[in-house]
Amino acid sequence: MERLKKTNYSVLDLAYVREGETLNETFKNTLDSARFVDELGFSRYWLSEHHNMQNVASAATSLLIGYVAGGTSRIKVGSGGIMLPNHTALSIAEQFGTLEALYPNRIDLGLGRAPGTDQLTAAILRRGDNFMNYNFEEEIESLQTFFSEENKDSKVRAFPGEGANVPIYILGSSTDSAFLAAKLGLPYAFAGHFAPQQFHQAVEIYRSQFQPSKYLDKPYTIACVNIIAADTDEQAHYLSMSMYQGFLNIITDKRQPIVAPENTNLELASPEQKYMLKGMTALSFIGCKNTLTQSFQEFIFESKVNEIMASSNIFDQKAKRRNYKIISEIFGN
């Protein structure tokens, strides 16, 4: 129990669009959730860049971060993440420099190397598909240069951005970014909520190869996992049907809004699809407070992560708040 209380806890929000809901309502629900977890003592509230997905409204990630930061008071707000190949380092330095100036010491910048979408959409975002030689490490270092006050003598400077206090986190869903985060001495967040297969190997690589830097003196790991908490195990598993349907829609390439548990059709999944679904959701924690407490005690003891980031794809907003309340009771002091 003591280990849980020493573990930070936070939220990943994709601004999921629910069936029958307008985008304005989606964004209001995102802000309401952020305000709620801010009051509960969560560490951070991250929003993720995705494109060409009808059920996800977080495409203009920096705009949504500003909206959430402006409507909350304490919690850190950031990206989980910005997909850096879709942008220039200068534009991200300017955007997040602006956010940090508006909300000092409250903005995080999580960076990923994936497009956050399909290849056709990625090619349009990047004005071409010639990204075979994209160097993620060089772009991160370029971004750090734009944030640095030492860049003041350069012909190209970031205004706002130069001198901004914007912590950078490396995101990963495989072992590749674990090596990079360790090399650069930056905190590492693993996307276990949809790609759990290499989680344990990746965090071990990161910890064993970590090189202290001016940004971080020892490894810091965040595990993003699916959490569906409710007052009973049965209720939690019922609520989780919306989450499973969302992942099944990804597998079957059906881009559609999130549906209520009673409107799911999981029974139509083929054996192959069910196998894929099981693999994608292996790092899912579903149950009541007692069930989750035991599960997280075991998980954190084995993984030694510093922070649990909850991705909670729950259709009913009242049930989603109850989910966050239970999470805060498990990890809060």
From TrEMBL:
Database matches in InterPro entries: Bact_Lucif_Oxidored, CmoO-like, Luciferase-like_dom, Luciferase-like_sf
Source organism, top-level taxon: Bacteria
Signal sequence, renumbered to the chain: none
Molecular function in Gene Ontology: oxidoreductase activity, acting on paired donors, with incorporation or reduction of molecular oxygen
PANTHER family in alphabetical order: LUCIFERASE-LIKE MONOOXYGENASE
NCBIfam families documented for this protein: oxido_grp_1
Protein name listed in UniProt: Luciferase-like monooxygenase
